[in-house]
Every structure is written in C-alpha cells, then in structure tokens.
Amino acid sequence: MSVLNDRSSSAVVCESTQRTSQRSSGGKLNLWFAMVALAVVLGCNRSKTNVVETDDSPVVQADSTADTTRPGGDNSDTRVTLTASQLRPVIELEEGFVASGTCLQCHADEHQSWHASFHRTMTQVVSIETAPSAIADGEVVVQGKRYLFEQSGDSFFVTYSDPFRGGMTMRRELLMMTGSHHMHVFWHESDRHGTPAQLDIVYLIEEDRWIPRDSSFLQPPDHHAGLELGTWNRTCSRCHSTHPRERFNADAQDWSTRVAEFGIACEACHGEGRGHVLRHANPENDAALSQVLAESGNDAETKSDDLIVNPAKLSKQASADVCGQCHSVFTPDYEVVALRDYEQNGNPFRPGDLLDDLGFSKVVRASAEHRESEAFQQWSKMEDVGGAFWADGMPRIAGREYNGLIESACFQHGEMTCLSCHEMHPATGDDKDATPQLTEWRNDQLGSGMAGDDACLQCHSEMGDQIEMHTHHAAGSHGSRCMNCHMPHTTYGLLKTIRSHQISSPSIAESRLTDRANACSLCHLDRGFDWVSGHLHDWYGQEIPERTKSESDVDLSTSALHLLSGDAAQRAVQVAAMGWKPAQEASGTEWMEPYLLLALNDPYDAIRIVAEKSLRTLPNRISEPMDAMAPVGERMEAFNDAIEAIDESLKMEPRPSVLINEEGRFDFLRAREFLERRNHRPIHLRE
After folding, report:
1. Beta strands 248-249 and 183-188: pairing type?
2. Which residues make Cβ contacts (< 8 Å) with residue 126, sequence separation at least 6?
3. 504-510 long-range CB contacts below 8 Å, 24 or more apart?
4. What is the pLDDT of residue 58?
5. Above 50 in pLDDT, residue 24?
C-alpha cells in the first residue's frame, strides 16, 4: 500500500489537487499529478502543527526542593530543601581513585591535551564556566512548546511545561549536560534525590538550534522515549563518567549515584592512581602502596607495581580493550558480577584487564560465525539486531568502533589497534600556544598524518609506489584515498555518518547479500550495481552473479534505490552522502536536489534534518531554504514550489540511473513506483 498515513496526507493531497486545477493542461498537469501521488506516498510525517502554548498557569518554583515522601510511607508533607549537589549524582573517590587534578602536578602536558578533549566534557556540571550561551537568558519555542532559559547568580534554570509533573509549568535548575561535540543534552532537577531528569529538547551546536530530543535519534515517527528520569544514572553514566556506581534505591525509587569524575578522565584509561602517587611522591611509601595493592586484590608481581598502565605499551588486545570498555556493543553478565554488587561498586574492569577474561562486559559480535555465541543470543533477545548492525554483522551505529576493529583483518592478523591511528596526547611544542593544534586534534583525536593515507601506509608500505595501479584512480584523487574505499561512511550517529571502523574492501558478493551500500556506491552516487560490479570484475576479478528475474531492467543507482525504496537507516546514509564533497565531485550534483527534497518530507525527523544540511551544500541550488522541522503542510507547500521551479529551470542530460528522463527532467512517476516499494520496517538505531 502506497499511502503510509491517510490522516497526515489527505490535507496535502486536497491542497495539491486544488492547485493542479488552477494549472494549464499538458505536460505540467502530468507533473502535478505525479506530485500529488508523491505527497500521498510521503505523507506519513510526525510533525505537530506549531501552535504556541499559551499556558497561563502559575509557575511553580521547584529549583531547590525535592519530595522525599516514599511510596507506601507517611503522606504528610516532608519536602525538604536540597542543594544542587544533592539533586545530581555525587563525585566521590573510592578505592584507589585520586582524580585528574592530582595528575596535573606531574603530567602537565598530558593533562593539557586531556583537558582540551571531548572525552573530558562528556558530562559536565552546568556552571558559569561550562554553560553555553544558549541557556544563559532567552526564550525558545520548539514545536509549539515554550522554554524560558535564565541565569540567576551562578545557576541556570529553565521554565517549561514539565512532563515529569504532568505538564505543570515548572522552574527547574539545570544541573548537568552530556555531549559537547555535536549537541548538548541537559539534565535538570527532579523531585527525586540524586536523580536528574532529561530536558525534552537538545541543542545542536553547529546548527545553533533546538530540536525535540526524540528527533535527535533515528527512530520511528511514532516512537517516544517516554520520561527520561534516572536514565543518566542507569545508562549514560556507564560511558560518560569515570568509575560510576549507579546505586539504585528500590524503596525510594531514586538513585544515589557516585562517580570518580564527570566525563572520561585520566583513570578511565590509565587505571587507579593512588598507588602511582604513593610510589612517586615518596619512595618510602612502600608500606602504604602494599596496602593499596592488597585492597585492590593485586600485588606487584601480578600487575603493575602501582596499578597505572599506559595503553600504548599494553598488548594489542589489552590496549584495544581499554577503548572497548565504552566503544562497543556489550551486554553485562550479572552471573559474573551480581546486579546489586555492580550497582554498589561499579564495573570491575580496569585498564590492563581483558574484557573476555573478566567476562562481565560481554562484547556482542553479529557476524555469521558469532551469532550462536552466548553474548549474541542473550543480547538479541532484548535488542533488535538491526538497531546496531547491518545484515552482515558490520556495526552501523557510532560509538561502537571496537566492534568494527576486532572484525577487521588488520586487527585479527596484524598488529593494528586503536592507537595505531588515534592519539590521546599529541606532542605540543613548548615555544608556542598549543590551543590551535589541540582544537584541530580533538575533533577525531588522530595522530599526526593519520587522517590520510599514511595511516594505512605505515603497515602497507609496499602500496605507496603503486597506489594508482591498485585503485585504478588518479593518484591524487579521492578515489585513491585508502579510507574512502576501505572505511566508507556507513556508520550513523549524532545526525551524521562517520567512517566504518571495520576495515573491508568493496565486494560484489557482500553487496548482493547485505543491506549496506559499498564504498564504490557511496562515492559514485549516480551509478548502479551493474556498473559497480563491472568495474570490480574488470579490476579485481570478482565474479559477476547472474541477474535475477525480479531485478529491474534499469540499473538504478544504489543511492536512488536506497533513498526511494530503502529502510530508514539506508536512507539516512544516502542523504548524508549527498552532502559529502568527494561524492558530489564524483557524481555531479544537479540531479540530487529532487531526492533531497523528497528526503525533507521523510517520516523520520532525523533524516529530514540530515537532508536539510546536505541541501545547503549543493552548488547552484534552485529551491528555497526549507525547515526540516516545519509542519508537514508547510514542507509540502515548499516541496511543490521547489519541484515546479526545478522542472521549469533545470534541464539535464538523460541519466536513467537516477531517473532523469529523455527530456532532462526528473521522472516523478517512475520515482513513485520505487517509493511504493519502500521498506517500512521500523528502524531504531541504538546510539
């Protein structure tokens, strides 16, 4: 059935039909009828009409109180005054942790680079030093809902219709924020001790705009996350803080979470520092050091004499596991460590341990040979496999790079590890300001030269003199860049795509079996599978399979096919690819605008946001700017105007692979045929 949602499309169809009757007959009429059909097919968007709330109910001051009434207890008024530090998780050093400020005394250079990194700012307490200007003072309206931000002294507040209080207008203190690289997610006080609630809008830093929290994830239009109360304590803390101990209070239904530090700090990667400090502060501290080792269950003969490790000096597996403790799809095994013990004491993993040997955080591997494993079986009962992996088991979500690394031949049969390319503490000259260098470095935390071919040539040096022979592309072109072929942008997260960290080569056989576009198709967006297969056969001897009867006679480009008929994850990858400069240069851009306009009416909010960004990169764009988050009626009106302008002014060479017909126009009737075959399987990528 081509109509995805009659309720949201009927008005659009009616309006477009009225406009059609006002047009002259002939070719234009066919175009408008095609547009009506497309409006029906695309009309399943979940965009509310932006009616601004005019709630005149009194604002409830709630920034310094919390309801301490417990379920089942005395219902008398027991509200008490709490400080901000009591309303959020608490920094508390336990075991051998000493915090990053201690490291600064001896390791100033390393501390400087860590302080500049986004690791440090994964979670921050909202303060004058950390608060972005977006929450200082001012009012925003997001899909009809008002949010008033204000600063009072050293604190920051938001007044809005609080879903945690049934929509009552509340003034809430903003306590913490997670993110800082691409977006800010804010957590405000709730009525529960130590349990922050998530603000239901997020701030996109590069875009300088607020969007609904639900729109920041690739998830079905009818999916709503619900009330995010305690989510930071249970989920975010695991990889956005150092040494978290969740400590859920079942009776009170609140949390007493403790962390060594907010954000990812020194001891997350180097291990507990107390013994190291004792050892090096005073050589006579051997007795105290022995006590630290004994308390941690270690001794100088079985582990580093002060528990500190340098990931660069560990074995390949142990080094990768330092990153893998966070950057992986894993499932906790509460038979190894009981849930109650885990909540009280935290994850037993320490840098230098092996994840497999410890056995608590079981890494989920989804390739065919691992689908019978205990970890995969356990995890797949709780999660949709497609929410984290492509059909062939390659990771499809950002933040899980460890899963890609360990499936790569460079790791399995070579010595590659995370630190082969990434560098946590770049060398900075003593005689110059390091800020510009660190600002550039912190984006991807790559070592010097590791953003280009040198990353691969450090091991594959024999390829240096035969790049063109190997790639069949000009030596200086994007087609000869190692990563473009072996690490394409097939991983999605944070409203963009990043390079796959599972190093692979374009394969005809894999492309036939998986739902993932290969590297050739993500650069040559205007080319179909037959064209790609022909070149892989001619250049590398790969076998060309026989065409099946069900396949189209037209070699439609993979990009067009995925955008029109693919699932939401495939569409997201393609709209991002259309904004990638190397793909624009290889494919041309004049044909892309109709596809991105169609994507701007996708039912998934995240796809529309990515499509809007890609549209802005097109040279000689014809359509007017369009807001991805505007109500469906406004977007369809803008879509109709844009398509009419394109049809009148843009004439291209016929390109059947992207549905440009013999008249040089985009063939909307043919596009409708592919749209009606769209895969509507709900996709929720678990970032």
Report:
1. unpaired
2. 135, 155, 156, 174, 175, 176, 177, 186
3. 504/394, 504/408, 506/532, 506/536, 507/536, 507/542, 508/532, 508/533, 508/536, 508/537, 508/542, 508/543, 508/544, 508/545, 509/542, 509/543, 509/545, 510/392
4. 57
5. no
**CA 149 – CA 171 distance, rounded (Å):** 9
Structure-token pair, residue 493: 């997260």
Q: Could you tell me the pLDDT band of residue 294, with boundaries at 50, 70 and 90? A: low
CB-CB contact of 586 with 523 (8 Å): yes
**Does this model's pTM top 0.70?**
yes
Amino acid at 393: G
Task: Decide: residue 373, CB within 10 A, 0-12 exposed, 13-18 middle, 19+ buried.
Answer: middle
In angstroms, what CA-CA distances link 176 with 124, 254, 325, 628? 6, 17, 23, 28
Could you report the per-residue pLDDT of 409-424, keeping only the tens digit for each?
A: 999 999 999 999 999 9
Which of 156-170, 221-235, 609-623 shows the lowest per-residue confidence on average (mean pLDDT)? 221-235
CB 385 within 8 A of CB 395: no
| The predicted structure's pLDDT at residue 285 | 63
Distance of CA 517 to the CA centre of its chain: 19
Among residues 383, 414, 417, the alpha carbon closest in space to that of 402 is found at: 417
SS3 23: coil
> Distance from CA of residue 228 to its chain's centroid?
18
Task: Look at residue 32 and tell me whether its pLDDT is greater than 60.
Answer: no
Q: What distances in angstroms separate CA 675 from CA 46, 95, 685, one per listed residue?
A: 18, 58, 22
pLDDT, tens digit, for every residue of 379-396? 999 999 999 999 999 999
Q: Rounded distance, CA 416 to CA 136, Å?
A: 45
End-to-end CA distance of the chain: 31
Query: In a 3-state reduction of DSSP, which class is residue 82?
Result: coil
d(CA 313, CA 277): 20
Residue 17: predicted pLDDT = 35
Tokens at 131, concatenated: 């608060």
| CA dist., res. 42 & res. 8, Å (int) | 9
Residue 363, amino acid: V
Where does 313-394 show beta strands of DSSP type E? 330-332, 361-363
What residue type is 127 in one-letter code? S
Residue type, 169: T
> pLDDT tens for residues 448-482?
999 999 999 999 999 988 999 999 999 999 999 99
What's the token pair of residue 181? Answer: 């690289």
Q: How far apart are CA 346 and CA 96, in angstroms?
A: 13
- Rounded-to-integer distance, Cα 451 and Cα 445, Å: 10
Strands of 234-332, DSSP E: 241-242, 248-249, 254-255, 258-259, 261-262, 330-332
